[in-house]
């Protein structure tokens, strides 16, 4: 957890507004034709682009858990530079910086200056090198078509930057006005560079990515197959959450994602040819951490455990959690919450006051708790305050519950619920506890394992080896891009998730 970001609006609010990646939109209006896509003017990387990208790069690394290093990252970099060179932004591979991010979120994006990113989680979902090239080509296509510059101009006109409410308040009551709670205006850094694109821009980036695949000798149909895998993964995640509509915005899809898949396949051509390098890809990504990295804390159902910082808590029944580099988002139909931490330089009272102040926009009346009550939770000194806020959809209770972990370190929850409904979070507040060294040592990462199908292996027998207690078959099928009636071929390689 990044304690320096504790009492401020986290960058995840910006990501929720739409990372530059594939996940922004899974459908759109009538597709641009091939001629229009080819006619998109390409702008070479300029010195100002390089400066802008270099400034944003560290912020994005911090937001997405840092960079993965080693052979897997080198392979992704190699593929990324190969596809980026097809864009015309530069003829020099060294002008591109391709980063494999240590994030459990399915995402990819690019920013001006030659910076291209993909998370290890999205990489693990892919099934061949052409799909990886297609995703990275899609992101480079956004930059080549200057989409981010167009979105920045709109953002500057409308002052739409990142806001905590997009993660917390906005989804509680479906109230965009109350979503202004927690709004913070940032400088023109990584936030402006990662704003959501329009549907037509997403489709144009799909087509540019397919064009780059063809130029590089890859099978251009891979853009459609990776889009299909992403849509299926998002649907599976929604199913595992119990069908709730409270889907994190980075994972949102249109009800008909198949339309974008069909559009991509049509543009690629059903008879298209090219390499996929499937076995090479699988061998090079084997061993990637899948899901949460224990160094960033681990979500397991309703339980969150941080083995490095040595604490854990449980979300309320019926809620789900999304882990981030600097915070944990907790979502349910009756409320929203966020858990993060910060430096404790004074009392818990002043810490709580600072957190409330961070939820108030500069030109709005400051949100203050009616009182701050002191308590103890599992031997940890704690305090909490509640504020009642009027919104156009009704009255909402905002609670900040903070804990003094000693040595100048504090952690806190911020929760939002309809008036009188904050008690739903009481079990969560009371569940925070320190964990022993033995408990911390028992937390193991899940890893991507590539195995060769043997005679007699079936979907069911291999899925039984997945490191999950639920939906093993569904997880296995989606991870490998297989349908329910798939018959496995001996000698064929497939992915598993194991401890």
From TrEMBL:
The keyword Hydrolase applies. CDD domains: LysM, M48C_Oma1-like. The keyword S-adenosyl-L-methionine does not apply. One of its GO terms (molecular function) is metal ion binding. Keywords: Hydrolase, Metal-binding, Metalloprotease, Protease, Zinc. Its cofactor is Zn(2+). Residues 449-496 form the LysM domain. Pfam families: LysM, Peptidase_M48. GO terms for biological process: proteolysis involved in protein catabolic process. GO terms for cellular component: membrane. This is Peptidase M48, Ste24p. It comes from Novosphingobium barchaimii LL02.
């Amino acid at each position: 957890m990044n304690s320096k970001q504790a009492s401020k609006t986290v960058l995840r609010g910006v990501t929720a507004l739409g990372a530059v990646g594939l996940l922004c939109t899974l459908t759109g209006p009538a597709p641009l034709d091939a001629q229009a896509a080819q006619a998109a003017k390409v702008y070479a990387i300029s010195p100002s682009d390089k400066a802008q990208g270099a400034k944003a790069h560290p912020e994005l690394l911090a937001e997405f858990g840092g960079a993965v290093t080693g052979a897997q990252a080198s392979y992704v970099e190699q593929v990324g530079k190969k596809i980026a060179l097809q864009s015309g932004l530069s003829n020099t591979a060294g002008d591109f910086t391709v980063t494999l991010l240590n994030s459990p979120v399915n995402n990819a994006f690019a920013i001006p200056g030659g910076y291209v990113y993909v998370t290890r989680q999205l990489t693990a979902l892919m099934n061949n090198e052409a799909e990886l090239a297609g995703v990275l080509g899609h992101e480079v296509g956004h930059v080549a078509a200057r989409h981010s510059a167009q979105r920045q101009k709109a953002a500057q006109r409308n002052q739409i930057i990142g806001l905590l409410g997009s993660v917390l308040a906005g989804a509680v009551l479906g109230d965009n006005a109350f979503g202004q709670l927690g709004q913070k205006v940032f400088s023109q850094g990584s936030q402006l560079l990662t704003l959501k694109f329009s549907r037509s821009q997403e489709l144009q980036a799909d087509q540019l990515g397919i064009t780059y695949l063809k130029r590089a000798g890859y099978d251009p149909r891979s853009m459609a197959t990776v889009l299909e895998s992403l849509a299926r993964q998002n649907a599976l995640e929604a199913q595992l959450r119990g069908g709730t509509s409270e889907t994190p915005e980075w994972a949102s899809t249109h009800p008909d994602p198949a339309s974008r898949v069909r559009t991509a396949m049509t543009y690629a051509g059903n008879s298209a040819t090219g390499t996929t390098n499937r076995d090479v890809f699988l061998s090079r990504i084997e061993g990637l951490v899948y899901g949460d990295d224990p160094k960033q804390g681990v979500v397991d159902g309703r339980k969150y455990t941080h083995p490095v910082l040595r604490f854990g808590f449980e979300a309320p029944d019926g809620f789900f959690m999304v882990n981030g580099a600097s915070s944990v988002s907790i979502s349910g139909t009756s409320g929203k919450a966020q858990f993060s931490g910060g430096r404790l330089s004074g009392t818990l009272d002043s810490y709580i006051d600072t957190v409330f102040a961070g939820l108030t926009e500069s030109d709005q009346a400051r949100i203050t708790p009616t009182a701050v009550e002191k308590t103890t939770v599992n031997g940890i000194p704690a305090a909490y305050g509640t504020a009642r806020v009027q919104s156009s959809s009704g009255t909402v209770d905002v609670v900040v519950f903070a804990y003094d972990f000693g040595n100048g370190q504090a952690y806190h929850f911020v929760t939002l619920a309809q008036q009188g409904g904050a008690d739903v979070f009481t079990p969560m507040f009371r569940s925070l506890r320190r964990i022993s060294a033995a408990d911390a040592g028992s937390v193991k990462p899940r890893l991507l394992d590539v195995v060769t199908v043997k005679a007699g292996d079936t979907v069911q027998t291999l899925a039984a080896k997945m490191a999950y207690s639920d939906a093993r078959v569904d997880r296995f099928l989606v991870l490998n891009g297989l349908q329910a009636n798939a018959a496995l071929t001996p000698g064929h390689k497939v992915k598993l998730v194991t401890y």
